[in-house]
Amino acid sequence: MSQPTKTPVPIFKLYGETRHWPTPDLLHCESIPERSRLHDWHIRPHRHADLVHVLHVAHGQVELELEGIRHALRGPLVIVVPALAIHGFRFSQDIEGHIVTLAQPLAERLGQRLGEQAKVLRHADYHPLARSPQARRLATLVEQIDAEYRQPAPGRDRMLGALVEALAVALARLAEPHGPSATPTGVRQRDRGHEHLASFQALIEAQYRQQPSIERFAEQLGMSSAHLNALCRRLADRSALQLLHERLLLEAKRQLTYTNMTISQVADSLGFSEPAYFTRFFKRNTGFSPRDFRLRQHASEASKT
């Protein structure tokens, strides 16, 4: 039975937390109990502007609220929550499983590489897992992602990318019986606003290094900059410029953490005319200078080994 969701629905930046993406990785992985026990096993309905969740429930029960519809489910199953989908969970205390969260740039990259198969990451749905080789393969992929994510090692970024791509393909195979034109159970089609926001995020991903003006982005989308800003504030709770700046900041963190590029080189690669301007931008958004951030990241990585 349909359960109407009260509005406004909060927009979170990471699985129930109103804080910035906590890592320079484009992927976050943790066990479901790690996060849910902190909230008394209940994550109230919310949505993310730029994150995709894949939950693998190996064992236990979950009351899933997905786009206003409640489902009483039992593991094993997998749940896909795309950006902007309203979702909430109430887990049993014996829940076992993992949640893999993809930042929008990684989801966009998978879309470019996998084409039609990546559509599974754009539709809110759940899939019961029968005891089959396909289900075991998917569970193994999630376990491998979790192990690789937690243990820094040479080639970690590439290994995680390969595993996530394999996971997306496995999910596409799992969803294939629905057919390419089927509507996921109980899930409403997105409105035009969601489609426009997704198009804007795709443009950001393709052009953020050139730092186009918001007017230029709006022109490419066939709308005014005022309309684009209103759309972003309504659906993502940020301005269009903030969304562009968040992508720049994420890439800056990644380059400072995982490359030996100088601060000047990082600034130039991200379209800043002067290193000093980049430094001011980075410190204003993180509280640290690029140099101090890099030192902290390296110290953190060293403490894990």
Automatic annotation (TrEMBL):
The keyword Transcription regulation applies. This is Helix-turn-helix domain-containing protein. Pfam families: AraC_binding, HTH_18. Keywords: Activator, DNA-binding, Transcription, Transcription regulation. SUPFAM superfamilies: Homeodomain-like, RmlC-like cupins. Residues 198-296 form the HTH araC/xylS-type domain. It comes from the Bacteria. InterPro entries: AraC-bd, Cupin_HpaA-like_N, Homeodomain-like_sf, HTH_AraC, RmlC-like_jellyroll, RmlC_Cupin_sf, Tscrpt_reg_AraC-type_HTH.
